[in-house]
Amino acid sequence: MTAQALYLGIDIGGTNIKSGLVDKSGQITNQYKRKTPQNLPDLKLAIIDIVNQAQAQVGDQLKGVGFSAPGQVVSETGVVHVGGAIPFIDGLNFKHFIKENFGLPAAAINDGKAAAQAELWQGHLTDVENGLVLLLGTGVGGGIVLNGQLHQGSHFQAGELSYMYASSSDMTTENAMGRRGSAVIFVNKSRELLGLAPGDGEEVFQVLEKGTNPEVTALFDQYCQDIVYIVHTLQISLDLDRVVLGGGISAQPLVLKGIQDKYDALRRDVPWFNDSFEPIEIGLCKYGSEANLIGAVYQLLIEE
């Protein structure tokens, strides 16, 4: 009996590297997470270690590696141009790197597009003609589906929503959506307001649930409003049917509720928007924080 083919998905984020083994049906196992190194040599060593661990677990069953990363990732070549939240990966060729070190095929795709591939494959965008995946993390990743297919753009830069500005009067880094819509920055600012040491968002959302800190509540309201600004802008540009949210923070029920409430308020308070555009569905990615891993592997399967 032939052993089942397995593929390694590696999602390189601004904060963490996630990895997992994925089969041809999209089932994922053996997931791991580690901090993202802060320089290219250490990142390469981390990738080698992750692949070595996978090979030690499954041996010859490992048939390839799919990468998800921020920035302009040219899927045809596997090269990153402008690393987004990880600028030092600029110029890294994932395909060549894996081929040279392991003799395995590899694919690479932008993180937002990887999530969209997963949701298109067998997630919550399978039946959608025009949709959007929003990844809420260190920045804001986007994966756009047009006419039932992933839209990468002429230069593989479609969906780089972190570079969207909230207004033309302030086109600075601080006013870009990569910062205003950053879940990491929101959590860090909230923890500072609460006098907490750096950490994850659990304690922040406990406070939000209780409604005991008006400053943190106001910060969260603004965060949700900024995400709705992105949704609104793309809805009127692309006539979307559905938006699904991903990224670690999307696991918090308050996030979907907060964004839905702000979207409903926009439709209620702006008559022309409500009268001219049909309401769109806002939901969650089926695969949550696993979407990037599954989508990166699906990109490899498509190329093979």
Automatic annotation (TrEMBL):
Superkingdom of the organism of origin: Bacteria
InterPro entries from the UniProt entry: ATPase_NBD, ROK
SUPFAM superfamilies tied to this protein: Actin-like ATPase domain
Similarity section: Belongs to the ROK (NagC/XylR) family.
By what name is this protein known? Answer: ROK family protein
Organism (species): Aerococcus urinaeequi
